[in-house]
Write a structure and sequence with these properties.
Elements (H helix, E strand, L loop, with lengths): L16 H7 L12 H11 L9 E6 L2 E8 L4 E3 L7 E7 L1 E6 L2 E6 L2 E5 L6 E4 L3 E8 L5 H8 L28
Antiparallel strand pairs: 1-2, 2-9, 3-8, 4-7, 4-9, 5-6, 5-8
Length: about 180
Amino acid sequence: MTDFAYPSIVIPARVTWHSIEAVCPGLFNPAVAVTREQMHAVHNLLRQVDAVELPTKHYFAGGMYCREGIIPQGTIIVGKVHKTDHFIMVLKGRITVWSETGRVEIAAPFIGVCPAGSQRMGLTHEDTTFVNVHRTDKTTLTEAEADLVEDDPTSVYGLGNMIKKKPMPESHHVRT
């Protein structure tokens, strides 16, 4: 684990490092864990800006579901809560991950286990390719996500990490 100063990434004006640290005091202190409530507060800040596309591939084989995704450098992400233990692998890149147990910097290659019910927040320092491997008897993405991931209606990401469509503001509706 290494200490670092404010990362050199661009955060849109409505979300600043100050606003993030206001809801997560001590975020860059390696001894400080982040609570679930703080992660929700960061999630709410991030919902104010356009979501980052997360190219994700999905694979099924022999009672397993594997998800491979790419998180671009400089992205702050708050993950969904998974219902089961699963493997996480970082194949490429470097990411700082916060959870209720603390902060850790992960660099590829990495293999670990994420316990059921945990939630994580991350900041990528490089383009980062990750893989999750879950045990499931489901054979479609819709069934697998329902089986493995807690529903989060506030997430900007829907099925398969696709960005949910935002409703048009009332002023943009066409009246006939």
